[in-house]
């Protein structure tokens, strides 16, 4: 019996090494990775730039307290500010911590400007913001809340893509609206660009903040650096993680200066957040993203991926209900139990992951090639045919 908490239904497969979009077991079996650690390994496995950065960083300073100036952290923050709407950044170890920082920042902002009653946040059905007590309350999923006592108050949930439902929930206690431009865990639900523009306008009209959770859909996954760019808007606060560290634990809460200035010394902290080693690797990740043509490549392979998804829907109308996604965060809503199909696809040495609403989720590394996508869908097609053939009559 494992000495680990039983919080995961783990596959018995263990990987010894990775290379690009492939993982290998100790026995030498090769798997195509269309999962990427739930969107974390955006640059694939064993990326030479990141390996070098890790080794070089390990030869210098791994960790110091945030009471000292950390040049690597300062540089990464400056680069993120230059590329986005933000004026300031708080680094974390994970996405959930970035969301916690965003919630605190929004509430603290209104306290600082003399509106302490503004503590409520409007969120959305199907959302996933993390596993802490605060973030499960923000997500609102009953199965994640069960057994942990009374949820943290102050969160209201409405259906996505329904601006009238949002407006109906607004009050003089509303601090912010928080949304994922593309819900990952919730079933690859894409928010329309008009809906995001309407949310921005609604926040402006009502004096509240717009918080975007781009932990899974940001950092190039939709073909833009952040997904909000497609709608031509800017948030007040944004949360990033997963791909930002290329596999090393790193997250960030980005904010406009007017909002961030309420977070003065003593209001928030993180022992490891933004330490030298993490930010060395974060800067190396950003170096790769800033190479000419990187996002052009993502958009190109994304169009190829979605062509294949449409082909799957046509070939297997009995198994596929709907194609979903934007860019390289994509999925198939299926008729069989999705975990059965994830297992069957894995039997054919292709790694995918389930999402809510019975969706087979695909999050390949952004460095994937068209040929590797072709190879992956050959395996997926074989798996779907295998599944169909072996179902009871």
3D structure, described in words:
With 393 residues, the chain is α/β, with parallel strands linked by helices. The protein folds into 2 domains: 15-47 and 293-389, Aspartate Aminotransferase, domain 1, CATH 3.90.1150.10; 49-289, Type I PLP-dependent aspartate aminotransferase-like (Major domain) (Aspartate Aminotransferase, domain 2, 3-Layer(aba) Sandwich). Helices cover 38% and strands 19% of the residues. It has 13 helices and 17 strands. It has a 7-stranded mixed beta sheet with strand order 4-12-11-10-7-5-6, sandwiched between helices. A 4-stranded mixed beta sheet has the order 1-2-3-15. A hairpin with a 2-residue loop joins β13 and β14. It is globular.
Distance between the termini: 38 Å
Major sheet: 7 strands, mixed
Q: In terms of structural class, how would the helical and strand content be classed?
A: alpha/beta
- Which whole number gives the mean pLDDT? 97
With helices defined by DSSP (H or I, 4 residues minimum), what is the helix count?
13
Helix content: 25-40%
Strand content bin: 15-25%
Across the major sheet, the strand order is 4-12-11-10-7-5-6
Q: What's the shape?
A: globular
CATH architecture of the largest domain: 3-Layer(aba) Sandwich
Please give the domain count. Answer: 2
The sequence of SSEs as H and E is: EEEHHHEHEHHEHEEEHEEEHHHEEHEEEH
CATH superfamily membership of the largest domain? Type I PLP-dependent aspartate aminotransferase-like (Major domain)
CATH-defined fold name of the largest domain: Aspartate Aminotransferase, domain 2
């Amino acid at each position: 019996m494992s000495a680990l908490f039983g919080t995961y239904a783990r596959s018995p497969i263990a990987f010894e090494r990775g290379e690009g979009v492939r993982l290998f077991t100790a026995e030498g079996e090769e798997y195509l990775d269309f999962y990427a650690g739930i969107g974390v390994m955006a640059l694939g496995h064993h990326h030479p730039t990141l390996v070098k950065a890790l080794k070089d960083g390990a030869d210098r300073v791994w960790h110091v307290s945030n009471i000292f100036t950390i040049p690597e952290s300062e540089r990464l923050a400056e680069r993120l500010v230059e590329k986005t709407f933000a004026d300031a950044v708080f680094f974390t170890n994970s996405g959930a911590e970035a969301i916690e920082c965003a919630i605190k920042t929004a509430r603290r902002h209104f306290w600082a400007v003399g509106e302490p009653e503004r503590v409520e946040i409007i969120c959305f059905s199907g959302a996933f913001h993390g596993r802490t007590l605060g973030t499960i309350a923000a997500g609102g999923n009953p199965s994640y809340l069960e057994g942990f006592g009374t949820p943290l108050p102050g969160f209201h949930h409405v259906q996505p893509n329904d601006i009238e439902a949002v407006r109906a929930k607004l009050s003089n206690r509303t601090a912010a609206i928080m949304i994922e431009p593309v819900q990952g865990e919730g079933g690859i639900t894409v928010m329309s660009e008009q809906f995001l523009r309407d949310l921005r306008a609604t926040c402006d009209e009502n004096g509240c903040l717009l918080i975007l959770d781009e932990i899974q859909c940001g950092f190039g996954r939709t073909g833009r650096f952040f997904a909000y760019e497609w709608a031509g808007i800017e948030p007040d606060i944004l949360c990033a993680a997963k791909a930002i560290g290329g596999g090393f634990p790193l997250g960030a809460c980005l904010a406009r200066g007017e909002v961030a200035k309420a977070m003065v010394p003593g209001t928030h902290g993180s022992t490891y957040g933004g330490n030298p080693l993490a930010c060395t690797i974060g800067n190396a990740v950003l170096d790769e993203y800033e190479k000419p043509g990187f996002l052009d490549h993502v958009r190109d392979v994304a169009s190829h991926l979605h062509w294949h998804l449409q082909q799957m829907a046509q070939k297997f109308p009995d198994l596929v209900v709907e194609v979903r996604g934007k860019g390289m965060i994509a999925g198939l809503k299926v008729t069989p139990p999705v975990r059965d199909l994830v297992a069957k696809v894995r039997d054919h040495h292709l790694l995918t992951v389930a999402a809510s609403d019975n969706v087979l989720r695909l999050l390949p590394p952004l460095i994937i090639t068209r040929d590797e996508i072709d190879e992956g869908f050959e395996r997926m097609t074989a798996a779907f045919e295998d599944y169909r053939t072996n179902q009871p009559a």
